[in-house]
Amino acid sequence: MSDDAVEVRDVVVRYGATTAVDGVSLTVPRGRVFALLGHNGAGKTSLLQVCEGFRAASEGACRVLGLDPIRDHDELMPRLGIMLQSGGMYPWATASELLHLFASFSANPIDPGTLMDRLGLHKTAKTRYRRLSGGEQQRLSLAVALVGRPELVFLDEPTAGMDTEARHTTWQLIEELRADGVSVLLTTHLLDEAERLADDVVIMREGRVAATGTPAQLTAAAGIDHLEVRAEAGLKPEVPFKVTEATPGEYTIAGTLDAAAIASVLAWFAREGAQVTAVNTRRRTLEDVYLALTAEQLTTGKAGAGR
Fold first, then answer.
1. DSSP 234
2. How many other CB atoms are there within 10 angstroms of residue 301's CB atom?
3. For 94, which DSSP code?
4. pLDDT under 50: residue ranges of the chain
């Protein structure tokens, strides 16, 4: 295996007779942000647990920072930052005590006070963990994952429960981690978050990889789905696509539109002698791609039993 941050090859995770992860392969290059997407039950969490060394794969192989996450667990852990969705904290300890505790495990930690200020936790420094709000607990979990200056960070739903300001602060921190050469593997249900942050994306469905690529590659492959044409009002374009005129002279043509289709639509306007004053296209977003790839799972109810 290569010296990538994470390399997964044909990994299978089973819970009894149920297969949660079914032959997944992926590579996380060093110094990049990698987003793992999928509905609840797609197998994301089980795959993360294999990479983090908390669960052995039933089949396949996994290397993290060049090490085996099970056999080399003790050697690997000081080099990782792991942000869990919940749990792993002493409920009676204060936010400051918890962050200083985890900082003490590192040879060269980030100053806990600085990190708490950055994440807006300075007002809750003396508040016990169990009394923090959900968003505050999430921000503290992020601080714990980062305080040891890790080479690789696992972020499981990093902005869940956060308000808008905290979410944007978290995004900035993730972008700074990448700029510093830190590798990030994250899961998220926020597609705009993945589209903004991720260098690479894997979409999982029913324990398998449904699509992989950069956000730009995935959206480019999905194509253009809206063409907006401004011309004189009251026309009835005779084209094999859905056409709406929401306001006079503003036509929206919806469908899977490649270059030939767009040319045929504009040719119709030209044949009618209609003066076209503006043309705009809208490419599908990562959310559009995600929903299209996972639509079958939702409509058939085959959500799988993967975690």
1. T
2. 6
3. B
4. 1, 298-306
